[in-house]
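FORM 7B: Structural annotation worksheet

SECTION A. Query
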Amino acid sequence: MTEAVEATRRTPGTPCWVSLMVHSLGTTEEFYTDLFGWEYEPGPEQLGKYVRAMLDGQEVAGIGEMPPDRHLPVAWTTYLATDDADATAESIRSCGGTVAVGPLDAGIAGRVAICSDPLGAIFGLWQADTHLGTRLQGAPGTPVWNELVTQDTSTVGKFYQHVFGHEARTHVTSSADFDYLTLLLQGRPVAAVHGVGRSLPHDRGPHWMTYFEVEDTDAAAAKVVRLGGRVVQPPREGLGGRLATVADPEGAVFTLVHSRP
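SECTION B. Predicted structure
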């Protein structure tokens, strides 16, 4: 069901926004318009060449263009809500993480920082002012879940618990090798940590994965290929529905999911 998110601040520690920095903004906009039906509006000028992706007039994600002299990996970034970006940044440092950028003001939209956890997974902090984050959920083309893919859940899970107050719940299965934590706030699942051990991609390292809702996972994965992207992991059944991990033409990896009712 398509649902507009209530216009209030998110509970600190809740994923509230996803954004992507690319080398060619125009071609990336075209890819996601064709895949998800996104339209775009200009973002804060302080962030450089940056747009907000829209569905039904509601903000769902951000895309920015890197300066020509920067050659950073292209990846979706998950932002976690905070009421005080500066205090949270200090907590990240004291718990073994790194603050790479900020905190800095993004005009009247809010305050932002780019950080990494002790094992190197990059994530953002967002202290909302006028921009509260993703405003639509449940519709195809909207981010519906965020999952940290890392070596193991033990150390890094404790980091997120200490910094953001997450309660961690172990997912019990018949397989002793399945290493998975659900992160909860006020009893509600908000994200997950998936320990994959030696299966962690060497070219990516630990990373946050964004899941986007689609009507048909198999059809959407095939469309990604037609639009110049590629399939990283073919469609399969997962914990929350039918999944496919794909990459856009610039290499940003994300997961398509058709959620179970």
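SECTION C. Observations
The helical segments are 25-36, 85-94, 153-164, 217-226. Residues 53 and 61 are 5 Å apart (CA to CA).

SECTION D. Sign-off
Analyst initials: ____
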